[in-house]
Write a structure and sequence with these properties.
61% of the residues lie in helices and 0% in strands. The protein is mainly alpha-helical. Helix 2 (18-31) crosses helix 4 and helix 3 (37-63) runs antiparallel to helix 4.
Amino acid sequence: MTEQSEQRTAPPAKTPDLWTCVEDLWTWLDANRKHGGETGLVLRMLKLTEEVGEVAQAVIGATGQNPRKGVTHTWEDVQGELCDVVITALVALRTLTPDTRQVFERHLARVTERSLGPSTAPRLSDGPAPRRVDQGP
């Protein structure tokens, strides 16, 4: 046996399931929210605007656009901030409906078909019809 074959490598880390993570994050946020009802709903949606602002800040920092600060971020920072936007948007969508995956996949299929044509639209699994969640206090 060669030295290389004797070395054991750890199996690759399992990629977390997107939809399980969204549900887990929503559950955690919902259990620790300071405001319920419409105020909580509005604040959850506004969090998305905050995250988009952080993308803008990172782009400005990556390009050195602010002469007083210079280059303060990398394009990898921008990537991370964009991921935060996606995660925040999916958690916000989960706040509106427990059928997050089905709602998102149906919308993605419509956008893809509208943009690229019917032959390129992904064939997504048909799930239950979306249902509205009561946003009471």
